[in-house]
Design goal:
Length: about 260
C-alpha cells in the first residue's frame, strides 16, 4: 500500500485541488485538506473568502468545479442521490442562524430529523432521544418552548442538539459564536469540545473568532485568495512570521489566561 493511500484512508475528510468559481469570481483555487478521525479543524478567513462554500461542498450542497472531495471514503460529487442522503445523515450541519423552525416547539424541532430519517422509531424512542440531546446541551427545560422564547445562545445549543440527535460522525459549524456575548461564546466553545469527546466527531469549524478557534480546534487553517495560506496548531500558525497571520491575530482579542 502506498503512503498516500494510508493517509487518505485515515482521513474522514480528504480534499485535493478543490476549485470553485461563481461566474468570473474564483472562490476556491486549489484547496487541499485532510481531517483525521476525531479531529477538529477551524477554518479562518475574511468574509467572502470561501469558508462557507467549502463546507457546503463537503456536505454536497454545492458541486466543485475541479478536484476531489471524499467524505467518509465516498467522493461526494460522484455518488447517487440515495447515497448522498445516507451520507448527509452522518453529517451534522450547525448553521449560523441555528435554522430552527419558528412555528415548531423545541421538541418538534428535534423530532423532525428523526421522523424524516428514522422511520422505524417508536414515539417512546423519539421522546428518549429528544430528552438525551437536551440533557447533552443542558437545556431540558426548553422542551416545550418556541424558538422565539429562547436566547441567542439557547438557539445555538438547540440547533446543535438537532444535529446531534442523528448521532453524526462529522460536524460542520458555521460561525458558531457569531453574535454571542463572551460568556455565551465560551459555553458554545465548551459544547463543541464536549461533542467532539462524547460523540467522537470530526469537525470543520468556520469562524472569525480566534478564541473559538483556539479553544475548540486541534488544527487551524487560514483561507486567503482561495487557498490555505497557513495551517497547523493554533500556536504554529500564529507564531509564524506570516504577515497575514499576524494581521489576523492582531485584529482579534485573545485572552490567554
Amino acid at each position: 500500500m502506498m503512503k498516500n493511500d494510508i493517509v487518505e484512508r485515515a482521513s474522514v475528510i480528504s480534499i485535493k485541488n478543490l476549485k470553485k468559481s461563481f461566474g468570473s469570481l474564483k472562490v476556491l483555487d486549489g484547496v487541499n485538506l485532510n481531517i483525521k478521525l476525531g479531529e477538529n479543524l477551524a477554518v479562518l478567513g475574511k468574509s467572502g473568502s470561501g469558508k462557507s462554500v467549502l463546507i457546503k461542498i463537503v456536505s454536497g450542497l454545492l458541486k466543485p468545479d475541479e478536484g476531489t472531495v471524499k467524505v467518509l471514503g465516498l467522493e461526494v460529487n460522484k455518488i447517487n442521490l440515495k447515497e448522498l442522503r445516507t451520507l448527509r445523515s452522518k453529517i451534522g450541519f450547525s448553521f449560523q442562524n441555528s435554522a430552527l423552525y419558528d412555528s415548531m416547539t423545541v421538541r418538534e424541532n428535534l423530532a423532525f430529523p428523526l421522523i424524516r430519517n428514522k422511520t422505524n422509531l417508536s414515539k417512546t424512542e423519539i421522546h428518549h432521544a429528544i430528552e438525551e440531546v437536551l440533557n447533552e446541551v443542558d437545556l431540558p427545560q426548553t422542551i416545550h418552548q418556541m424558538p422565539s422564547e429562547l436566547s441567542g445562545g439557547q438557539r445555538k445549543r438547540i440547533g446543535i442538539a438537532r444535529t446531534l440527535i442523528l448521532k453524526p460522525e462529522i460536524m460542520l459549524y458555521d460561525e458558531p459564536t457569531a453574535g454571542l456575548d463572551p460568556i455565551t461564546s465560551g459555553e458554545i466553545n465548551s459544547l463543541i469540545k464536549k461533542v467532539q469527546t462524547q460523540y467522537k466527531t470530526s469537525s470543520i469549524i468556520i469562524t472569525h473568532d480566534l478564541t473559538c478557534a483556539k479553544n475548540t480546534a486541534d488544527k487551524v487553517a487560514i483561507l486567503v485568495n482561495g487557498k490555505f495560506l497557513e495551517s497547523g496548531s493554533f500556536e504554529e500558525v500564529f507564531k509564524s512570521e506570516n504577515e497575514i497571520a499576524r494581521t489576523f491575530y492582531a485584529y482579534n482579542f485573545i485572552n490567554d489566561k
